[in-house]
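Let's study today's protein:

:::
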Amino acid sequence: MESRRLRWEELPTAVRAAVQERTGPVFSAQTMAGGNNAAVAARLCTARGEVFVKGLPCTHPQHWAQRWEAELGVHMAPTGPRLLWHVEAGGWCLLGFEYIAGRHACYAPGSPDLLLLAQTLTELASRPLPPVALEPVEWRWAEYVRESADHQRFAGDTLVHTDLNAANVLITCERSYLVDWVWAGRGAAWLDAAIAVIWLVASELHTPASAEAWAARMPAWHQAPARALDLFAAANAVKWGDIATREEWARGLCRGAQLWAAHRSR
């Protein structure tokens, strides 16, 4: 659900006061563009340094997801920004993360960002599960597979991000960081690599073969049985085709998923 993006100054006084109890005075605030999952997203310059703040009203339907992201956030560094604090005041829920001075990833062939992303996904796939309740993600494809049990091939005990839009990958000189963990869960170690393949093809800059060649840099990719990848590609073609009939933004992912599925079915 899309939320109107508010400026820091538009938040209730009680909310801003609760944040400043943790940050000290806020000297300036820059509203951040992009993303649909937060009513407030801002870079704050404070007495205790820069911080990225995102938040929703407590009455918002996705408020539960933000609370869950807060629970996960304390465990995510260095793969993602570290959660510094979680504030609920004045009818709002706000999360404060360490500010990463980076840019969104470039998914063009040959981009050095793709090497950094592969390194970060490899790091994520090798991490132990954090001590939080993680939703199994395989059910998200259950209605899009032909055989009722096929979605179980996507199950596993690895923390997966699952939303690898280039806007959710921040690039610095040293590494890449994954942000916006609302759709994270527990699944097969190779899932994020496979999901990234769809995003690369959807960018219209990669062929399915070149995207898979990039994914092959990651050890987790080689853990995926060929049949599981075939089924995953086919399931995503159906899933994104269904979503694209209702949501215009999904048309690129629909095309990317369908091209990958056709490539896998040869």
